[in-house]
Task: inverse folding
């Protein structure tokens, strides 16, 4: 089954939101990392000027006073380091903080050149500034030096983690809030469609006859059209049934008169051919009208509660029988529904029950239940009687039109043929077998559809 | 027994009347709903045959109306409508039996007799009262197994008495159920039929099957038949 509209829209909104918020987060992260780096560069620059201000040239060596304004230069492993190399790679000076710590880049830069780089000292990741300078002392002697100032990147990393935690936290919260709002909006705006679906379900179960609620303008047209279609369909079915009833009346009354006329004179037996032809016409009329009256699986999923119909059929079993009314039993759950109109169900059950009553000696049973059939649930109708049963060789034949196993009983074999046609129109199956009651068992399977 | 036929097709109504009369029934005809309802209400009818599609008032309406008024008249629906919906609706409206057109006259007669029998409390088509046996299928009477020749009127009297075992039936009631309305009624004739019946059913005056209750009417001897 396709996912619901609401789910589709929600999935789409989630993906778009995730993409948008993700991209926003990445851009902000990038920008913040850039600004952290620039801040550290500015700091290194500041240290550079502090050191340069304090430096003195002595015997061609650039040296620093014992006390520097930045105390971290004097604390071992403080995370702020500095060293000065001359152009012969000789170490002129290094800060106390570097004592015992290997510092593994000692490049030289031309005077005025400035370069930022990353390095490490021991376990510490460092961000460093190298600056090439030329220093002239009072005697006019000029020395070229390279000053390295490095600061631990730990602070930057901590700031970044704090920033990221807060950034992604807020973005996630905003995303969830947006999604919840979105879901609520969807739920509200798809409400009318849900109502239509519920109303259709109510129609299926027979609780409603039309889609009579109030719907938004956008779908009201569709609803009106659907209602019109349903009304037309019903009107047509009613007209059709009425026409069939009229046709039945106008065909059968003359047939009755014809037959009664033939049998009117008790002293003269009517010619058997004439009676036979009347029977044939009668059979054809009954069968074709019965077939035509079957509506079949309903276009609008109309479903008929079975139990009331089954009870009405059982109550209509004629009490006028040679051996008195049969003992009957009916098993049917209250909530079972037939996937079609009441008329079809009545024909189906009526003909089956009538057949069982015609043949039974004193007992018949009707059972309707849901069973699993070819992977889906189907309706199973079982009718048993304690009559003579149907010989195996006759079982196929009695389900065909005019096919009667025993010609001596009244009826034209039409009932079972109509049952078979109805079952076919519901894509069901019918089988004749032996009943535990001793007679015939008719079993019908109707897929629930 | 008096049967009301409500059928709008004149030819079929005529044929039914003809055949039923031949079977010793008194027949009243109605060709439309209102007349049918009026006859069923106000005439001493024993059974009604009702077509469903009638002008003026449908057969179902007639049956419902009669049942609402408390009538227990046995009713047989005779209709060209064949669907189970119509059949169930007909029986639910209060009809006792249902027969589709075209029908065999024999089947109709069998159903009529079965319905009348059921109303009288008889389960079997042969109504047995002591040595007297009346077969509703062949409309013949036997005494101690020996066939008995009865005239149509004598048969009607006996059948009527047998269908109401134990009930006292006035001369007037008997007349109404045995004669068509337009017939020249003379209640003295009933006495003649009863006398002749007694002679035939009880030639040696030992059985006394029909009792006379002075000033009230006649009755089948209660111990002869089940009530």
Result:
């Amino acid at each position: 089954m396709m996912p619901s509209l609401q789910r589709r829209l929600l999935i789409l909104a989630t993906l778009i939101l995730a993409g948008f918020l993700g991209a926003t987060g990445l851009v902000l992260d990038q920008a913040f990392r850039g600004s952290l780096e620039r801040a550290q560069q500015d700091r290194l620059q500041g240290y550079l000027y502090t050191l340069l201000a304090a430096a003195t040239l002595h015997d061609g060596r650039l040296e620093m006073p014992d006390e520097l304004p930045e105390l971290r230069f004097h604390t071992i492993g403080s995370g702020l380091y500095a060293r000065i190399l001359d152009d012969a790679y000789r170490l002129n000076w290094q800060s106390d903080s570097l004592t015992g710590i290997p510092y593994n880049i000692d490049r030289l830069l031309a005077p005025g050149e400035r370069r930022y780089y990353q390095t490490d000292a021991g376990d510490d990741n460092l961000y460093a500034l190298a600056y090439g300078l030329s220093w002239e002392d009072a005697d006019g002697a000029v020395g070229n030096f390279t000053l390295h100032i490095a600061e631990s990147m730990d602070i930057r990393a901590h700031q970044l983690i704090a920033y990221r935690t807060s950034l992604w936290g807020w973005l996630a919260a905003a995303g969830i809030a947006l999604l919840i709002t979105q879901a609520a909006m969807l739920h509200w705006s798809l409400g009318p469609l849900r109502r239509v679906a519920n109303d259709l379900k109510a129609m299926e179960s027979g609780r409603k006859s039309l889609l009579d609620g109030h719907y938004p303008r956008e779908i009201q047209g569709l609803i009106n059209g659907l209602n019109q279609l349903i009304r037309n369909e019903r009107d047509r079915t009613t007209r059709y049934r009425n026409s069939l009833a009229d046709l039945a009346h106008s065909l059968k009354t003359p047939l009755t008169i014809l037959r009664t006329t033939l049998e009117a004179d008790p002293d003269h037996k009517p010619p058997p051919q004439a009676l036979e032809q009347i029977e044939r016409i009668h059979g054809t009329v009954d069968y074709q009208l019965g077939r035509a009256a079957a509506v079949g699986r309903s276009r609008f999923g109309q479903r008929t509660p079975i139990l009331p119909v089954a009870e009405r059929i059982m109550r209509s079993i004629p009490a006028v029988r040679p051996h008195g009314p049969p003992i009957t039993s009916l098993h049917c759950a209250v909530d079972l529904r037939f996937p079609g109109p009441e008329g079809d169900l009545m024909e189906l059950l009526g003909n089956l029950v009538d057949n069982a009553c015609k043949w039974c000696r004193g007992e018949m049973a009707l059972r309707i239940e849901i069973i699993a059939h070819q992977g889906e649930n189907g309706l199973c109708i079982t009718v048993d009687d304690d009559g003579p049963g149907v010989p195996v060789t006759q079982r196929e034949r009695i389900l065909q039109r005019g096919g009667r196993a025993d010609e001596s009983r009244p009826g034209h074999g039409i009932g079972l043929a109509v049952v078979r046609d109805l079952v076919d129109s519901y894509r069901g199956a019918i089988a004749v077998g032996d009943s535990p009651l001793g007679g015939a068992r008719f079993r019908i399977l109707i897929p629930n559809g | 027994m008096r049967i009301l036929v409500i059928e709008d097709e004149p030819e079929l109504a005529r044929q039914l009347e003809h055949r039923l009369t031949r079977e010793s029934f008194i027949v009243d005809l109605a060709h439309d709903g209102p007349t049918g309802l009026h006859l069923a209400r106000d005439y001493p009818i024993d059974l009604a045959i009702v077509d469903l599609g009638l002008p003026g008032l449908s057969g179902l309406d007639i049956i419902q109306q009669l049942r609402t008024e408390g009538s227990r008249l046995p009713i047989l629906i005779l209709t060209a409508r064949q669907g189970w919906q119509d059949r169930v609706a007909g029986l639910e409206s209060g009809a006792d039996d249902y027969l589709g057109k075209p029908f065999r006259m024999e089947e109709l007669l069998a159903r009529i007799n079965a319905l009348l029998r059921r109303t009288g409390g008889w389960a079997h088509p042969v109504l047995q009262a002591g040595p007297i046996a009346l077969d509703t299928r062949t409309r013949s009477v036997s005494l101690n197994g020996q066939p008995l020749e009865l005239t149509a009127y004598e048969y009607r009297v006996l059948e009527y008495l047998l269908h109401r075992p134990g009930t006292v039936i006035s001369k007037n009631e008997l007349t109404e159920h045995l004669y068509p309305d337009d017939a020249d009624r003379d209640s003295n004739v009933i006495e003649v039929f009863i006398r002749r019946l007694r002679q035939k059913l009880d030639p040696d005056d030992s059985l006394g099957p029909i009792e006379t209750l002075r000033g009230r009417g006649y009755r089948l001897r209660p111990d002869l038949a089940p009530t």
